[in-house]
Amino acid sequence: MWISVIAVTFVLSVVATSGSMIISANELILDETQNSESNFSSEDLSVYYSEEKKNSELALEKIKEEYGDVQPKFNENGEILLTPEDELRMEQAINQYLAMIGFNPRMRGVGKNWWNSTGFVAGVIDVGLIAIGLWTTGGSVSAVRTLLRNNRTNITRMVERQILAKIGIGVSGLLNSMFNIALTIASTSVGGVLAEGLDRADGKNDNYILA
User: Fold this and answer.
1) Are 83 and 142 in contact (CB under 8 A)?
2) Phi and psi (nearest 5°) for 117?
């Protein structure tokens, strides 16, 4: 009987000690992860930026290949007619794109890097618009501006709730300014003018969004 009690006591002691060791190890791993994310040098970020930019460009080409034939439908006022299938396709395309490029949302809070650059944001917006056929209609500067004017409400809603929300960017207070600025920018990329509009609207105009 005494032997059993001693054995049980020993086992419980070992389990308790092991548990504290596991907790300490987990805390150490977490601290190391957090420190590694906060200790990137500007040189490190520059290398990552170039690699991630290249990967994003390749992924965008794949999205164009898969969704580039989608034809949008418009009403008599030039406004796109969106269906639940369109919105589902948009979500699917954005998820595919982010998976292909290895999107890391935690890096958005580590200085200025690819994940909060206007180039990345423009790409994500373009992916969403490609999936519903809007991107393919912008063949010239005037076509892009006409598209934006005719679809201001739809595009604003999509950009805020279905595109930027996917990458953790909240810009509700900047949307009107973003759109007004975008209409003055000469570009054939809808995502490009909207991302640059956001960059100027956040007051910094430094090629990064809220960074």
Assistant:
1) no
2) -85, 160
pLDDT digits (tens, 9 = 90+) for 142-196: 889 999 999 999 999 998 888 888 888 887 788 899 999 999 998 888 999 999 9
Q: 104 φ, ψ to 5°? A: -120, 95
Q: Any idea what the Cα angle at residue 177 is, between residues 176 and 180, rounded to 5°?
A: 85
Return the closest-CA partner of residue 97 out of 134, 48, 52, 37: 52
Residue labelled with tokens 């892009």? 144
Q: Among residues 151, 202, 169, 150, which one has the least CA distance to residue 94? A: 169
What are the Cα distances from residue 197, in Å, to 130, 132, 179, 185?
19, 22, 7, 8
Per-residue burial over 160-192, b if 16 or more Cβ lie within 10 Å, else e, is beebbebbebebeebbebbbebbeebebebbbb
Tell me if 102 sits within 8 A of 144, measured CB to CB.
no
Non-local CB neighbours of 14 within 8 Å, separated by 6+ positions: none
Q: What is the pTM of this model?
A: 0.75
73: Cα separation from own chain's centroid: 27
22-60 pLDDT, tens per residue? 333 333 333 333 444 444 455 555 666 889 999 999 999
Query: Which residue blocks in the chain are alpha helix, DSSP H?
Result: 2-38, 42-67, 84-101, 118-131, 141-150, 152-157, 175-182, 190-201
Q: Residue 99 pLDDT more than 70?
A: yes
